[in-house]
Design brief:
about 350 residues, alpha/beta, Enolase-like, domain 1, flat, binds flavin-adenine dinucleotide
Length: about 350
């Protein structure tokens, strides 16, 4: 904050609504509304939450991920409702903390929506952690009585627990910030049909922090007439969970694709040294041998893929990666190992 203020940025707390390049700000404590006008308005106000089966958190016993801080102790029993990467993450954290987790999943099996090969892997991990999965569930009623939560499914099955955690999905609806739906279409810089009004980050399309930052920078440079190009987000690593971490970059190969290779963590001595034998790295390339994507489940998987993101940006090929020898024994050596193996096969 101090750094921004030193650059001449004025910071105002309040709820903003945008009317063209005019911004109305509702200030806290009943202070009169502020009206601001600017040559450019960059809306980075995030996405809206969507909960399974139209449920909503109460912030006390029916919680979302952002509410976990209200818990004063680890609940003995937890219901997790809904899947997606957040559903996996909630089950992972609560079961590791020692809570007995029942996971109500809408389909036959939970989906991360990150990459299909990850789903089966993480589902087996959750089962090993003792998470009880109830597939094909939709919730008819969920209520809390101060002591416990009580859930009834559409089929009439009943479940109870100390708390219920809702896995939220995110969608962008910039009309809540005052924009009209006919003005929303954004160009490559995020500029809407209203000249000078930009949408960036989750307000444009919910993805990740790095994507939001790249889009914010591109919009700001464009707004001051110093654009060097739109945000390049195809080579940004997306990750979730902690240990193991799931990380994805660019294009994910379809199962059995001839232009991809999967290596187990056990192919690196580091996995034995650090006792992290469970996980894999998948590397994908195009017909010319150029690296186009990767997927990893490993401790610090995002760091494992970071050099590959640079390789993609520099349009490197398998041969370039195969020539490299990194520190040993370190998991990152798997990248060059995978490239060498791909060239041999
Ligand atoms: C549970 C969870 C885990 C995640 N984990 C990861 C992760 O590990 N790595 C990763 O890269 N990404 C992760 N993400 C995604 C990441 O959080 C978002 O992509 C990122 O925060 C988007 O940044 P943003 O600036 O666009 O929006 P936000 O970070 O949502 O910021 C929007 C801000 O605008 C404020 N605001 C909203 N409306 C108004 C208004 N009208 N007036 C004024 N202010 C307003 C909000 O209060 C908020 O402070 C996760 C998301 C969730 C929900």
């Amino acid at each position: 904050m101090a750094e921004l203020e030193a650059l001449g940025v004025s910071i105002m707390n309040g709820y903003a609504r945008v009317f063209g390049t005019m911004v109305r700000v509702e200030l806290p404590d009943g202070a009169p509304e502020a009206l601001l006008e600017a040559d450019a308005v960059i809306i980075a106000a995030g996405a809206q939450d969507l909960y399974p089966d139209g449920l909503a958190p109460d912030g006390e016993q029916i919680l979302n991920d952002a509410h976990l801080g209200v818990l004063t102790r680890i609940p003995a029993t937890t219901l997790v409702i809904g899947d997606g990467s957040i559903g996996f993450e909630l089950c992972h954290i609560m079961s590791l903390l020692g809570s007995e987790v029942t996971w109500l999943v809408p389909e036959d099996a939970p989906r991360s929506f990150v990459a299909p090969p990850v789903d089966g892997y993480l589902t087996r991990l959750m089962e090993r952690q003792g998470v009880r999965m109830i597939p094909r569930t939709s919730v008819r009623r969920l209520n809390a009585d101060g002591e416990a939560v009580h859930l009834v499914t559409a089929e009439g099955a009943r479940y109870g627990a100390d708390v219920a955690l809702l896995a939220r999905a995110r969608h962008s609806d910039p009309t809540v910030f005052g924009l009209k739906s006919e003005d929303l279409a954004a160009d490559i810089y995020g500029q809407t049909k209203l000249r000078g009004v930009y949408l960036v980050g989750d307000a444009l399309n919910p993805r990740t922090t790095s994507v939001a930052m790249a889009q914010g920078r591109a919009a700001a440079l464009h707004a001051v007439g110093r654009s060097s190009g739109p945000a390049e987000t195809s080579d940004i690593v997306v990750s979730f969970m902690k240990n193991p971490q799931v990380a994805r970059l660019g294009h994910i190969a379809t199962e059995g694709s001839r232009n991809s290779i999967t290596v187990s963590l056990t192919e690196s001595l580091a996995a034995y040294v650090e006792n992290t034998l469970d996980g894999f790295l998948n590397l994908a390339w195009d017909q010319t041998g150029r690296v186009i994507g990767a997927l990893a489940v490993a401790p610090q998987a995002a760091a494992l893929l970071a050099p590959l993101a640079l390789a993609m940006r520099m349009r490197l090929r398998l041969e370039d990666l195969a020539d490299g020898y990194g520190p040993h024994p370190v998991l990152s050596e798997l990248v060059a190992q995978a490239a060498r193996k791909a060239l041999v096969e």
